[in-house]
Amino acid sequence: MSYEPPTPPANLPTEIVNTLNETDPEQLRDVASYAEALAEHKEREARLEESADQEEVEKRPDDLPDNVPVKATITIKEINDNRYEYWQWRDGDQVKSKYKGPVNPDD
Description:
With 107 residues, the protein is α+β, with helices and mostly antiparallel strands. It contains two helices and three strands.
């Protein structure tokens, strides 16, 4: 074991390093235990949130074509007094559309 104090991580804020340097060994062990438990908790929360986001992505409307993203919305356009529905979504700076069908297919 070295007699030199450890070097703190470069990304650790100075005020935290200073506080830890002024803390007794027992409290440092408590801080380490708490920090580890907190890190595990935050990682678990992030995984749960990611899992919930993934479930939302997997819920596709039945009539949504495979090449249309889930975030697409339906837009109605009127052409020659007829109304048509289009799937519409943003892809970068472009707005893309895919024909869905007439607004009232019975007409």
